[in-house]
Each structure stands twice: as structure tokens, then as C-alpha cells.
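S1.2 Input.
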Amino acid sequence: MRVNHRTLVRLFLLLALAWAVAAPGGAEQRLPMHNRIAEPVVGATRIDWLPIADSETLALTVSSPGEFWIHKEFAAGQPASLSLSEHLPDGSYTWELRTTPSPGKLPQKPLVVSGHFFVKDGSFVAARKKAPAVPRRPPLSPITPKDFFEDGNMVVVGNACIGQTCTNNDDDYSALKLKAPQPNILFDDDFVEGGSTPHDWGLFINPSSAAEFSIADVENGLIPFTIAGGTPTNSLYMASNGNLGLGTATPGSQLHLLNSADVPTVMWIQSTSSGVNGISNFRAQSDTVAVHFRAHGSGRTINHFGVVLGGWSEVVQDIGNGLLIGTLNNTPIIMGTNNTNRLQIDGSTGTVTVNGNLTVTGTKNFAVADPADARQAIYYTALEGPEAGTYFRGTAKTSRGEAVIELPDYFARLTEPERLTVQLTPLGSWGQLYVAEKTPSRLVVRMAPGSTDLEFDYFVQGVRKGYLDYQVERPNTLPK
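S1.3 Output.
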């Protein structure tokens, strides 16, 4: 039957479609099952994902619409599991399971499957798949329950409702409403050209009893894109200039992530692989420069700067003139370990403070421009020896054959009383002097009997407190 575009025929067509077009079972039931990894078994206090195929590891990630997030990994052959001891509050949760198949079993790329569950009244509740659509109900008068086939073009002026549960009152939404237990849309491609094969796609609505809108790769049983119900406004916004906003409708750059709430704003790049190629890498590149911020997996075996990179983080440039790290104002740079400031560069003076020991394999220099010739520089090198030494020097004069020299308190507070040495140098003429008493706080110098008082230089050397047992010879742990 061919329909002419007359008002009465259009009305009949819409009423017939409302009762006859709903897809029983929905497109979801066409998804192939070759991507299954493990079968979830839900109990009141525990969920176990029982492996279906051999795999090297299982990695389970669970999150909720709030701040709850957990990641767990399980050895080969062990089921992934989750229990209420993880302190899960009541609510809806999304789980994701990733695995790398065992060698020789399947292609060596991670497989991913996801789903949902609920915690209600302190117990786990499985998210049930929607049942296939029920048979058509007897229509409301004057709709007749018959299929209708249109082999030409169709134009509808007004609103339309398509689906199993449409009624006479469902023409209230402009311009098309889908209403059914599974209001999915299947794009069934049957065009083949040049040896290509058809590839079907689908739009899925709440496929697992969870509030979700998904784009499905029906041919491969994959759901690459999902939006959960309750996702905030402007969670993903593509501006007309191509800028992408995450949390903002006014992205100021090609990628702009914005969060004005008092919660962490995080950009997360994650690899769960423990293989030799497992790495999370943020790469910034211009026409002549490339720099990387990397997190290396535990199985990495390559070597940079004398270190095997497994389990290390790294900032490295591999193309360009060099790597600059610094501030453009007078704020400091701080580097630390174990939540302790180990090295600080003052932003105003450039003073470098090291909180710990400093080991060099070359010399420790200071340099200044030559006052007589600015084209040249003068380099001095620090004195080196097998101890952590302290010293104080000065000039004094005996009176009635004796000189008592009070050393500064700061020298006394930093110097061990043991291994203290003193050198005396007479000034102006020869004389016989000796050290009668020495401590880190005081020197007593006397003249030989019958000698004339004279002026002299003194040089006191000691060992820094706490370093009497300084180890000169040690195992070689220097960088390779």
C-alpha cells in the first residue's frame, strides 16, 4: 500500500507505528558475547567476578557518583572480589574489569567489560538486565493492531510517538518521542561496496537498569561512549572553534578542565599494565621540541640516567635545545622527599639551601668575574679532607706572658671537644708560645719564661658535632 500525503492517512500511520514498532528485546540482545571476561556473582556482603577465560591479571575498578573510587588487582586464576568491608555507602556503583589474556589464548590486548550494582540498606544488590519487551497490548480505540509498511517517503507535520507503550496523550513532546521498556535505536547498515562489510551501531538507553545513555558498536559488542544520568551540565562541551571544555561551556584553550567546587580537580592518565611497555605518558610537542611526563609501570626494563625505569616517574625532553624548570617571578623552587624540603632555591636571591648531605664527584667551586678583566672569571675550589671540619681564626697579644681567647659561642656549639687542634704564628719577631689550654669555647696561650709579650695569629680547627665517626671509605653507590 502506498500512502499519499494526506492528513487522514498520516494520522493512521502514526497511530499504527505507536503500537507496532517497539523493538522486542532491544538492540542490546544482539551484542556478541566474545568480550566476556568474568561472570559476576553477587551476594549480600560480597561480589566475586569468576574468570571465564585464562588471563594474566584481573584489574577491578569501582566508582560511584560521589567521591568513592577503588582499584584492585588480582593474580592469574584468582577471582576479582569486592566486599562491604571496603566501606561502601548506599548508592549506585559502576564497575569495570580489565584483563590481558594469557599468551596463546586470545589477541594480546586488554579486554574490558563493565556493569553496575547497588548497595541498599548495607547489602549488595545486582543491577538486573531489562527483560525483553512484553507482547503488544490490545490497542485503545480507534487504533487498530496491524503492521504498516511504507515503501515511499514520509513527512509528518506535528509530533510523533513511536514505541510499545505510546498512548493518545504522547504527542506532547516536540517533535519525536520514543517510549518503550527499551527505547533503543539500531542503525542497521546493509550497504556493501568495494569489499567492505556492514557495521551496525546503536543508541542504548539505560541498558543495565542504570541511568545511562550509550553509543554501542553492535557488531563487536562494545560500548565505547556512555553518559550517566545526573552528569553535571557542561561536563563535556565542544565549542564552535574546536575547543573542548570539561566542566565549562567557555573553554579557553583546546582542552580546558574547570571545577569551581571545593573538591580536587584531577586529570588522570592511567595504565594498569605491568608489562615492559606499560607506561602513562603526557607528551607536549611543538615543531622542534618534545617533552614527556611519564609514570613507568613495574615491568619497564629500559634504562635512563643509570636507572632501570620500572616503578619510576620521569620528566624528560627527547627533542629540542634543553629543559627549563623555574619560576618567572620571585617565588622559590622547592624539591623534597618523604614530605620534607630537601633543596630550596630562593626566588629573590638565588640562594640554594640543601637540607641534607651534598655529594659531588667533581669539585665544589665558587667563581666571580675578574675585577680587572670582565672577560675573564676567577674560580676557587673548596678545600677537601677526610672529615667534616670547623675552624676559627684570629689575632691576639699576650699580656704578662699570657693570652686568654674566648671563642665564639656558635663555634663551641658546633664543634666536638675531641680532635681539636691549634696553630700559632708569632708576628713581628721570633717568640716562644705554646697552647696551655684548649676547648671549643676558650684558648689559653702562654709565653716561655723570660719571653717578651708579642702579637700572634691563631688558627683553631675542629670536627663538626655528630661527625666524629665520618666514614671515608664506603661501598660504591655513585650514579652509573
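S1.4 Remarks. Residues 1-34, 132-143 have pLDDT under 50 and may be disordered.
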